[in-house]
Model the fold of this input.
Amino acid sequence: MAPALSNFLRVIRAPLAAILLTLALGFLLVASITDEPVRAYRDLLLANFDSLGNFALFLNRATPLTLIALGVVFSFRAGVFNVGGEGQLYAGAVTTTVVAIAGASLPALVLMPLAIIAGFLAGAVVGWIPGVLKVRLAVDEVVTTLMLNIIILLITSWLANQVIRDTTAYGAVSWMVPNSIWLPPLPFVPRATSGFLVAAVLAVVSWIVLFRTQWGAEVRAAGTNLRFAEATGVPAARRVISAMVIAGGLAGLAGALYVLGVGHRFEQNFSPSYGLVGLTCALLARVHPIGSLATALFYAAMLNGAAYMQISTDVPRSLVNLLTGLLVLLMTARLRRAAQAA
Amino acid sequence: MNLTSLLAAVLEQSTPILLAALAAMITLRANILNVAVEGMMLAAAFAAVAVGDWSGSAWPAFLSALVVAVVLSQLLALLTLRFFADFIVAGLGINLLAAGGTLFILERYYNSPGGLRPIAFPDIWHIPAGSLSWLPVLGPAFEGQSVIVLIALVAVPLTYVFLYKTPLGASLRAAGEDEHAARSAGIRIAAMKALSLAISGLLAGLAGAQLAMDKLHFFLPDMTSGRGFIGLAATLFGGGQPWMTAAASFLFGFFGALGDRLQVFAIPSQFVLMLPYVAAIIGLTFARWRILVRNRPARIRDNPQ
Done:
């Protein structure tokens, strides 16, 4: 037990240090603004648990973050630097919305799985493109995923503004999806989406798939060294592509569940860059599925807590954006080089 | 004159893209994919507006834009080269920091999260109207453009000369092409990368200053709206060569200028705006495909399927 514990502590030391350093810098900033910095920080981190309503909003926030982070885990374990979470999320959300609106006459029992699968598949296609280009042609996946993000955002902007636009509403939002296919709320937490349950279960499933199956071992082997994995008989290229399909699919699912569980329509600005924050969560968790669930919960608490902090003290909520920037900037930094072999 | 106004619009749209593209190009040659251009531009634009508002004169505003962008670039250099942070992650961190930081300052110190609009803002030097009337078509298009447009046009040959005709530029390219070989040749890799980031910051600062100081004279939280990434796309499309990068920037600027006019036809503007990014993916894929085809005989053993 003792070695396992010390091993665990060693693994989480660096991300924990990054989080604490960022929070400490933030505290200094807050202390220079308000007379009650402790109150501000309490609200930032703990106000989510003040009421059942706050808690529900917190779970709703954590759901897409968890799913995107899981997708990032799959792609990074396969050695693909996937920064395309945002695009995959939007592709999933908009496809689910389009399918739900187009198929509104279908019975809910058919339409609901159809809409969710469509969202998953849309994200999967967006993940497949950089995967295939990387494996077959060695096209840099950072570039393709970054560019695809913007392309997808422009496509959804066109759809939301011109095609499925709710003409009675203000802003670029689609028509509502039929309320027969809205996700049921979480038991005991009325306003929380049951999508969170899906995300939590998928975190465990992802861990099993990646660390306790042969497929997962092959994905990780391919991610560590593609040519060595090929040489030992692992169909590494195929494993990388399928990991990217799953990665995109999970982010697409995040969009689908957001539309059916929280937004009930597609809004062009629904994501406060969930893609990047999901990436942050996954990297903070050292690309570990269960750890990603934990960091996503932490981040959801901060994102929502910022609003409560702004109400109770006069600290602007964009403090969280500032802190996120600092955290992302700091989180991969090392005091000394871990291994010279890179 | 219709052609003149289109040319003027293309020049205006292309300048920040061109500067961003050169900023991304100079780091790309040192083997850094610089995703932080967007953030450096945004911070520079904010610094220009804030200092211009405060000081009431143009040159401090212009200089502070450059200083802020270079400082950010050196922060990125410090974290990646000294503390071994990942270039992409830290670069995205710079973007988030610039977006979050400017928004935070807007909310905290200006009390206007929507943006900063000074009542009076000093004008940067523009080419006076009528001074170039002796040049047909091109002259009127240049009239009224800011001095930064001229700097951007001069920056293209300057970066070319720097990269290909100076020892320092050769060292920088060597550090980007083969780190181990360059190190054996006595080139200080980290210094070269930091230098490329500093130049990149300078160019991104110019781009931000142009956005804020040319015509608009105000700052909006997302006013760069992806121009840093269009610049990155232009660099990748241009293969990291100064002339090709400049050509791609003008092409994308032309699309941008066209996008405003195409709304007359039934093409949604989003599809025009998409072109740079699609072009970057296709261009990069095509380049890789050509390399693959060229190397195919040597690769048969390597690639069993």
Q: What stands out?
A: Chain A touches chain B through 51 residues (CB under 8 Å). The two ends of chain A are 32 Å apart (CA to CA). Chain A is about 75% helix and 0% strand.
